[in-house]
């Protein structure tokens, strides 16, 4: 025993192992269970993110410019495609407005203040992405002061891209839907069918094909390729009607027991610098 | 402000710049989210810290740098503390311990040391995350899709940036002691 304590290197090694696992276990637990990290960490993250903003703005400007270039490249074909849709769009917009007004009146009559489809939103710009293989986090420049909470869904221009996983005072982290994670990033969703909607849970990401995988689907009989998938608003902070993507394929799992629906995400998870955080007006149970 | 304090401030700014560039490089160029199999992870901060470790002889200063910047890195990018906070000082002490073997620092030595440090860091992070069930990637996939591309990308960056970075870190470390 005497000899053991005189071995300095062994003691240092032991201390390092204890400290590593202690720190990791505590911080992972805090990340999973508490709604915000400890105040010290919040202040630290905020300071780093505020200074990081100085570097992020020029980078985002360059990124915007470069994506404009690639847009320019596709302009001709895109323009032709869009022209065919534009007439339809105007008609839809007019119809949407009428329906929205009618909906509002009906809600007033029924004394419904907010339903699952009501939400407000906050825009935020992206500061950086974690240089890590398994933590696909974006840092954005809004936090508790803008009313953000953990688990709120985040959209880019076209569709759902992830949800908030950590909020500090003036910055937060967004976990992308492309994270292959067992615990988080599950979205209650539904496929808009011809007659009825089919519910399920978007729970996985298939990195080979870049598709999202929807599981626990009630029945895949009426599901067709190209149908739209939206969030269903069941369970928690996600409102109803956020666009996720389109059905790409239906596959059986390895045991042939259940069907999974593969969804091509609508959001191109690459060319954006601004994200929208969705605040549901109805908050479900936590 | 005396020269030493000024040089240390310079070193801290140098490391911080590299820390931000890691995240921005990932965000701006290596943002392969839709087909996310191959992962390039920029590790510019490790590059800068390895270069400084080759030149700074004060081990206590190195450990302080490792812990402080490791803590910032963990908290800002990973959201959990204990990966870089522990592995970074270890890697730097390792470099400090074996650098006497090299009579004169040149590009060949530094690139191989950086290669070893990078492999150590990435494998360490993988093992820790695997133990804590933050990932389910198996070892072969880790080597093929994460470690390999990461090493390749960072070696190329090191090759391109070696001369300016080495000159800058030389200038940031050396000063006359007589005043």
Automatic annotation (TrEMBL), chain A:
Q: What is the lineage of its organism?
A: Bacteria, Bacillati, Bacillota, Bacilli, Lactobacillales
InterPro entries linked: Cell/Rod_1, Cell/Rod_MreC_2, MreC, MreC_beta-barrel_core
Q: What does this protein do?
A: Involved in formation and maintenance of cell shape.
PANTHER family membership: CELL SHAPE-DETERMINING PROTEIN MREC
All copies of the Rod shape-determining protein MreC beta-barrel core domain together span 126-279
Name this polypeptide is given: Cell shape-determining protein MreC
Top-level taxon of the source organism:
Bacteria
Q: Which Pfam families match?
A: MreC (PF04085)
Sorted UniProt keywords = Cell shape
The similarity annotation says:
Belongs to the MreC family.
- What gene name is given for the protein in this entry? mreC
Extent of the signal sequence: none
TrEMBL record, chain B:
Q: Which residues cross the membrane?
A: 12-30, 36-54, 66-91, 111-128, 140-163
Q: Which compartments does it reside in?
A: Cell membrane
What membrane topology term does the record carry? Multi-pass membrane protein
Principal localisation: membrane
What protein name does the entry list? Rod shape-determining protein MreD
Q: Which UniProt keywords apply?
A: Cell membrane, Cell shape, Membrane, Transmembrane, Transmembrane helix
Give the record's family classification: Belongs to the MreD family.
**Source species, domain of life:** Bacteria
Q: Which NCBIfam families match?
A: shape_MreD (TIGR03426)
Q: What is the scientific name of the source organism?
A: Companilactobacillus keshanensis
Gene (name only): mreD
Give yes or no: UniProt keyword Nucleotide-binding: no
Give the Pfam families listed for this entry: MreD
């Amino acid at each position: 025993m005497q000899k053991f304590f005189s071995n300095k290197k062994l003691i240092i090694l032991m201390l390092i192992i204890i400290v590593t696992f202690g720190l990791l276990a505590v911080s992972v637990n805090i990340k999973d269970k508490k709604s915000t990290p400890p105040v010290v960490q919040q202040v630290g993250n905020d300071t780093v993110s505020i200074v990081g903003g100085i570097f992020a703005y020029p980078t985002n400007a360059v990124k915007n410019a470069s994506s404009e270039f690639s847009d320019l490249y596709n302009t001709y074909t895109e323009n032709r495609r869009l022209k065919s849709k534009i007439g339809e769009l105007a008609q839809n917009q007019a119809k949407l407005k009428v329906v929205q007004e009618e909906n509002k009146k009906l809600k007033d009559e029924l004394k419904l203040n907010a339903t699952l489809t009501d939400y407000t939103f906050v825009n935020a710009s992206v500061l950086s992405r974690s240089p890590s293989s398994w933590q696909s986090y974006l840092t954005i420049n809004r936090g508790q002061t803008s009313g953000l909470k953990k688990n709120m869904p985040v959209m880019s221009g076209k569709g759902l891209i992830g949800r908030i996983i950590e909020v500090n005072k003036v910055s937060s982290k967004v976990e992308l839907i492309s994270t292959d994670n067992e615990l988080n990033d599950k979205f209650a969703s539904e496929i808009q069918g011809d007659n009825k909607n089919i519910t399920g849970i978007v729970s996985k990401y298939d990195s080979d094909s870049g598709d999202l995988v929807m599981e626990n689907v009630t029945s895949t009989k009426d599901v067709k390729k190209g149908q739209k998938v939206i969030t269903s608003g069941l369970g928690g902070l996600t409102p109803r009607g956020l666009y996720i993507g389109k059905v790409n394929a239906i596959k059986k799992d390895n045991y042939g027991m259940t069907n999974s629906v593969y969804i091509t995400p609508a959001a191109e998870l690459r060319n954006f610098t601004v994200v929208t955080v969705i605040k549901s007006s109805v908050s479900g149970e936590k | 402000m005396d020269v030493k304090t000024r040089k240390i401030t310079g070193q801290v700014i140098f490391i911080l710049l590299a820390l931000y560039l890691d995240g921005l490089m990932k965000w701006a160029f290596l943002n392969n989210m839709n087909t996310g199999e191959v992962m390039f992870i920029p590790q510019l901060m490790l590059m800068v810290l390895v270069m400084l470790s080759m030149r700074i002889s004060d081990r206590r200063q190195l450990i302080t740098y490792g812990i402080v910047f490791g803590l910032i890195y963990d908290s800002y990018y990973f959201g959990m503390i204990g990966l870089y906070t522990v592995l970074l000082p270890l890697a730097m002490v390792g470099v400090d311990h074996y650098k006497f073997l090299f009579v004169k620092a040149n590009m060949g030595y530094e690139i191989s040391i950086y290669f070893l440090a990078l492999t150590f860091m990435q494998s360490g992070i993988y093992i820790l995350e695997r133990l804590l069930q933050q990932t389910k990637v198996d070892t072969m996939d880790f080597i093929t899709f994460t470690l390999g591309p990461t090493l390749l990308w960072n070696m190329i960056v090191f090759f391109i940036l070696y001369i300016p970075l080495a000159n800058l870190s030389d200038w940031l470390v050396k000063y006359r002691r007589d005043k």
